[in-house]
Amino acid sequence: MLKRGSNALSSVKFGLLGHKIAYSLSPLIHNTVFKLLGVDASYEIVDIPEEVFDSEIRKVLATYRGLNVTIPYKTRILTYLTDQDDVARTVGAVNTILITEDKVIGYNTDVRGIVEAFKLRNVDLSGRTVLILGAGGAARAAVYAAHIMGASAIYVCNRTLERALELKRHFENYGINVRVEDWDRRAELARVCDVVINCTPVGTQSWDSPLPENVFRKGQAVLDMVYRPRLTKLLNDAYRCGAIIVDGLIVLIFQALAADEIWLGRPVLSVDMFRHVENVLVEHVPDCKLPEDLRT
Ligand SMILES: NC(=O)c1ccc[n+]([C@@H]2O[C@H](COP(=O)([O-])OP(=O)(O)OC[C@H]3O[C@@H](n4cnc5c(N)ncnc54)[C@H](OP(=O)(O)O)[C@@H]3O)[C@@H](O)[C@H]2O)c1
Q1: Nearest CA to ligand 1 atom 45
Q2: What was the pLDDT predicted at 287?
Q3: What DSSP line would sit under 223-280, residue for residue?
């Protein structure tokens, strides 16, 4: 039997903790990585109904070496953590946990996912103005990613103003300045900012966008955290206006590779590994395919 905290990785289990998440691409991504690395590990959906979360979670923590955490447990899991790494603490959101013999440690790999996605598309954020739509977990990761990439100003617009102000207050504690603007000003700001990042779910499985179609321009970069469909209306509009587009599937794959590095304790994240996983997804999942002229 596997002893917790041992280095042996035979038949180690990892999973995505959430509810109603059967649609997730994470099992395919992680199992593809484990196979390529020759690691005897598996990744599966860990779906727990909300009413039994507290009775089931201890069993889950005793079974898995690592978990990704998604809706609706992103906040509820926090009480079960014994520690958080510096990035997760600064961001104020956890999406990955590592379970050892005596610790349950929270991490945030979305930040690395966003940084690596911009790097893949050769988008440099240093000295550039960034507009972030949304104020949830993804927006928090985007704020921190923009900050460490050297953005000159970070604007946040959220449908619920108070949530954006709460985000601003949180980052103030870490010396990071966020400028909060009314949701109604988002189109005006999108016209002038160098980089736009959508961290709302608008556009998921629908042809909607959080912005009007004509606000983009050449020289701008637009990241949509939404990854299904891969080419969202927002990205399609931005591309037609000449902007560089960065899709959410790139972030999804890189954040998964970053989680694998934490879990396996070895280098995993590389452009080659990204391409391998991307090709598998494109082959198996119809809406992971980008139109030919948008692939780079
Ligand atoms: N590509 C990736 O790897 C990756 C990683 C993480 C997340 N994501 C995606 O990013 C999106 C946000 O995730 P999250 O974890 O940040 O979610 P979250 O914590 O629930 O936050 C959602 C945010 O979107 C806003 N919002 C929701 N519906 C909206 C609407 N109809 N119009 C305008 N704003 C709306 C919410 O505003 P209020 O405060 O007003 O409710 C909130 O600020 C999801 O689609 C998720 O799948 C992708």
Answers
A1: 201
A2: 87
A3: EE---SSSS-HHHHHHHHTT-EEEEHHHHHHHHHHHHHHHHHTS----HHHHHHHHHH
Q: Please write the tens of the pLDDT for every residue from 130-169.
A: 999 999 999 999 999 999 999 999 999 999 999 999 999 9
Ligand 1 atom with least separation from CA of 138: 16
Give dist(CA 114, CA 108) in Å, integer. 11
Question: Does the pLDDT at position 10 exceed 60?
Answer: no
Q: Look up the pTM and report it.
A: 0.96
Write out the catalytic residue numbers: 74
Q: Can the peptide bond before residue 229 be classed as cis, meaning omega within 30 degrees of 0? A: yes
CB-count exposure of residue 228 (10 Å: 0-12, 13-18, 19+): middle
Please say whether the beta carbons of 209 and 203 come within 8 A: yes
Closest atom, ligand 1, to C-alpha of 255: 3
Which domains does the chain possess? 12-109+251-293 (3.40.50.10860), 111-248 (3.40.50.720)
Q: How many other β-carbons are positioned within 10 Å of the β-carbon of residue 246?
A: 24
- What's the pLDDT at 9? 47
- DSSP, res 61: H
